[in-house]
Amino acid sequence: MDGVLSTRLPEELSERLSGHSFSRYPWVESKAEIYVLKHISEPTLYLKIRKDSRLLETEYNMLKWINHRIPTPDPHYYSRDESYEYLLTSEVTGTPTYQVKPHDRETAVRILAETLKQIHSLDVSSCPVIHSIENWVKTLEVNGIDVSSLEEWRPVENLVFTHGDYCLPNLLIEDGVLSGVIDWDYAGLADPYVDFVSCMWSIRYNFGEEADDLIPLFLETYDVELDPAKYGFYKRLNELIP
């Protein structure tokens, strides 16, 4: 493998990637190191390296569980050592929805809503990860995070399959249609409001004042009327998750 990584790869992975060149993916907000791997005669691959948190293991397992029911990268390899996790996937081509041209933003938001409804409609049989409120509170407390803002009132949960980080950079479109959804490391069974909060925040963050028109379009396309109290709870929960 050509180039210098910030950490040494496991021998099995290094041998598998022999002959590939790579470049660091310039997504500065990711907590993982992401590399684009190219080969003269093989498809482009993506390699994620993260200090051991088991999140890449979750993503690997979720991609296998989804099994192409939603367009996603193919999971090729996962391993971990005493310090790092390593996840190798296929490439998803296309334009992240936050980068679409202004005249394509309505189309992008409709795709966001339609895809999210498909995700929430997946059969959850044998889904291996459960992100219930109770489980998140336990995880946050173990990590020393104050959860008192969640104790006054908790909504009734409706557990469906969720993406967990449903923001515009994680959906790619090509020729006006969905080409893939990436970054499934927080996926699992949870309430749909987990994804509503992330998506609506991302629409406003990326599209600014235009969000005043695009968020109602998102909700109309998904066909949901939000409960303000429940939305507020999941917004507080989302802000606490590291």
What do you see in this structure?
Helix content is 35%, strand content 19%. It has two domains: 11-90, Phosphorylase Kinase, domain 1 (2-Layer Sandwich); 95-240, Aminoglycoside phosphotransferase (APH), C-terminal lobe (Aminoglycoside 3'-phosphotransferase, Chain: A, domain 2), CATH 3.90.1200. A hairpin with a 3-residue loop joins β4 (75-80) and β5 (84-90). Strands 1-2-3-5-4 form a five-stranded antiparallel β-sheet, covered by helices on one side. The chain has a three-stranded antiparallel β-sheet with strand order 6-8-9, with helices on one face. α3 (105-120) packs antiparallel against α5 (193-207) and α3 (105-120) packs parallel to α6 (211-222). It has helices at 11-16, 55-66, 105-120, 133-142, 193-207, 211-222, 228-240, and strands at 21-24, 33-38, 45-51, 75-80, 84-90, 95-96, 160-162, 171-174, 177-181, 188-190. The two termini are 33 Å apart. It has 242 residues and is an alpha+beta fold.
